[in-house]
Structure formats: structure tokens, C-alpha cells
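User: Predict the full complex structure for these chains.
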Amino acid sequence: MSKPSIPQGTRDFNASTVQKRQFIFQTIRSVFETYGFQPLETPAMENLETLMGKYGEEGDKLIFKILNNGLDNPQKKAQIDEGLDKVLAGKNSTAITERALRYDLTIPFARYVAMNHGQLTFPFKRYQIQPVWRADRPQKGRYREFYQCDADVVGSDSLLNEVDLIAVYVKAFEQLNLPVEIKINNRKILMGLAQVCGGEEKLIDLTIAIDKLDKIGWEKVKEELNNKDFNVAQQDLVERYLNISGTNAEKINALANLLGDNENGKKGIEELNYVLDYHISTGMNQYLVADFTLARGLNYYTGLIFEVKAIDAQMGSIGGGGRYNDLTSLFGVANIPGVGISFGVDRIYDVMEEKNLFPTSVDHTTQVLFFNLGEAEAKVAYGQMMELRAKKIACEMYPEKSKFDKQFKYAEKKGIPYIAIIGTEEVSKKECTIKNLSSGTQTNISFSDLAGFQF
RNA sequence: GAGGGCGUAGCUCAGUAGGUUAGAGCGACAGUUUGUGGCACUGUAGGCCGUGGGUUCGAGACCCAUCGUUCUCCCCA
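Assistant: Here is the predicted structure of the two-chain assembly.
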């Protein structure tokens, strides 16, 4: 038998890791709920059809598909052979696979809204904290199974939603004590740039090229634009666009000059300004950075877009989101605009761990270990232990009668702060010896006072 | 999908130019110490050197393949 292992890109989480992760989940969840979002859960698997074509060509390749059952059924052999040929040719076939693992939380949410729009009260605000799966090649900060925490509002055009979601980001990261900046841009600005550069149809090529700027540098981006038939004047314009710098206000001014009276550009700037101005009054503007190089890969975004970056950390974005005007139309229900954000918990964990930002209080463990000094003594001790447990004090008893040495070491390794000794002497006196392991101090407490002892 | 690094004890790693019985630290276990831990000392257990093939008188080391892992690119949280 080979050594046991787990699939590539997946992880087991030990007690301390789970507790730290729970701290992140609880922090985010409590902020979501404070802002009026309600929970939703959707299945780990969706119909393949629901997911395909929603994440772009690259995304489709990264969807984990689930093999159908019953492929060994001889009566279906013809269909299955035909399906297999399609799969081998790089297509999908429902004869082979008709379900897939969730790739993100946004599309399943859109599907849910489309299915239930008759029953939902709009604006509908939901949050969702669940794992997603991607058949990506794992590397630093990238896993094949990871959690997303999403909050979305659908059924409202108001920019107040964007304002509110930014506040969610700020408050959550403040509570996590993780310094971040929130980059903000508008797809309309990018659309405006594309129009000024020759046409809307260039938007996708343009955003893909721009998105790479901080990785490959301007020269390479220029090369890519050249390959995509941007002429010299257009390349020049993009260069001036990307070189915009300064404070948020200065950047926006420069951008307004560059895009002139392009309608999308004007609208995009207006929306951006609205949100930035709003957060001057909340004092959260210090976190906001207008960044016109921000593009976001997902093509369903239509308005303001966000990305959260941890300050001074070698890590890709730890959150992102934006406005999508018509996501549910993918599922046949039109005119439900929405806006949402996502937290990348696994990356947040990695950054916090690296920077040592977890409060020590997240480690919960047993408070009191009751020593086992023999059958009769243990029975008395067990009764005392149950009293403490009734007070919600975490206790456990060493399961075997062992030498002190061994029981002490167990407590020490597990980080248990107190031990309780009840031996023959204590039983006859109806008392208990409590020892604080870190200070070494030891006191005798009568059974009747034990439940009131301050551990 | 493309390209690099690394696989030796439970963990972290040595292993010199290919040479006889593969080492250390930590951890585990036992004892010194059968009602007082952390420290110290002593001892014990634990290795198909990832797997398969090849080169060689001889391979942990060199070559090929394969699997695993990790990082980078693409893309993304």
C-alpha cells in the first residue's frame, strides 16, 4: 500500500489552523450581518451547463468536471463512445459529464436569483461562505480547493451599495488588523478608453493587456497592443492613460482631460467620484486608491470594480468585486443589476500568518486537565469535572492512570493552563489541588468552591 | 497548457570526487524519579535514500523515465 496522500492543491487543517481560519470567517460573517446581508448556501456541484461559458475560455478549462455514473452500462455504450470522442476533442458531452464543482460563488448566486426571483424581496442582499474548486496548477497563494466569502446586492442600481460594500471591506480588514488598500476603477472608464482607441470591440483585448502592466511592464504591454492592431496613436494614448499618477483627485483630473467628452468616460468618472467623495465623510477614503490599470479578468463586470491588496505583502489580491448589470440574464431573467465583493480567505490567512497578525486569543484549548490517579479517584474527579463543564469551562480527564510525569507532559503539550489533582488524600478531604502550569502555583479548593474558581 | 527547483528517520536536514556497516538535531518511547511537569543525563526504537529502469567492479550520489511536491509563466482569490 502506498503512502496516504491528499489530492494536489488541497490541504488538511490542524486545530490551530482551523481556529485561525474560524477567526477570519467569524470576523467577516459578523461584518456581513451587521451590514444587513443574509446567508445563502448552494450545492458543491452545479449542472455543468450552469457554469460553462461564464468565466471565459481559460476559466472553462479550470472547472472540475464530475464523471457521470453508469458509464459502464452496456446499453448506453454507443452514446458514451460518441460522447467520449467529443470530450477527447476538447468539447463537453452530457453523456460523459453533466455536473461540475462550483468554480466561484457569483454564478451559482446568479443562478439562484434567476430561479427564485419571484419569491425574493429586492434589493436582495446575501452573503455566502463556501469552498470553491479550480483545476489550476497550485502555487503560492493558489489552491485547488479554497474558500470565498461573497456579499452581493442585487436589484438595486444605487451607488450606495458600492459605498456600503467598500465599508464592509474596510471594517472587516480593520477588525482583522490587516492593513490593506482598496483599488478602485470603473469598467466604464475602460470602455471609454477603448472607444477613444478605436472601438468597443477592443475592450477585452485592452483590459487583458492593461491588467498585465505591473507584471510585464509597459514595453511588453505595448508589444501586445501592437499585436492586437492598436495603431501608434492609440498605443500612445494608452501609455498616457497608464502613466496617470498622483492623488486620487489629480488622477481623475488627468483622466478627464484624456478621455474628453466620451460619454462612458464621463459616466465612469462621475461614479468613481461619487464613491470617493462619499467616503471622505466616513473617513474611509484613506483606504481607497483610484487605479486605472485595474481591469479584473471577469467580463461580466460593467461598472465600478474593486480589488483589495494587502500592504507590504508578496501576495496577489486578497479580495475583489464589482458591479455587473445583467448577470441573471445568463439564466434568462433580465434586468436585475447587482454588485458584489469577495474575500479570499486562504490568502488572507497566508498573509496574516506571515505577518503574525493573529491574536493569541484565537487558540482555544482545554482549560483544565483532571489527573487520573486510579479508578476510584477518577470517578470522584469525573463528577467534579462535570460541574466545571456545566459552567462551560473546557475540561478533560487523562484517560489512563499514568505517572504524573506523563500527565503533566500531556497538559503541557496541549497548552492546557491548569491541572486538577484529585487523589486519595483529596477525596477524603473533599478537595481538589489546582495547579497553574505556567506560574507553578498550587492551591487547594474544596469541592463546593470548585465551580466558583476563577480559571 | 509551458518552464525550473526539490524528493534521505515522524519533522528539519547532512551525506564531501560514485567506495565497505547511511548520519545529526529535534521529536517519540523507556529509565534516573511509583503524588508534582518544563531542565539535565543515560538508553531504545525508527530508513526498499519516492518508484522503475540504465551506466559501473561498485549508485543515496551519475543518466533516462515515472510519480509526488514546490515555485514561476498563463490565468486567478
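The longest strand of chain A covers residues 124-133.
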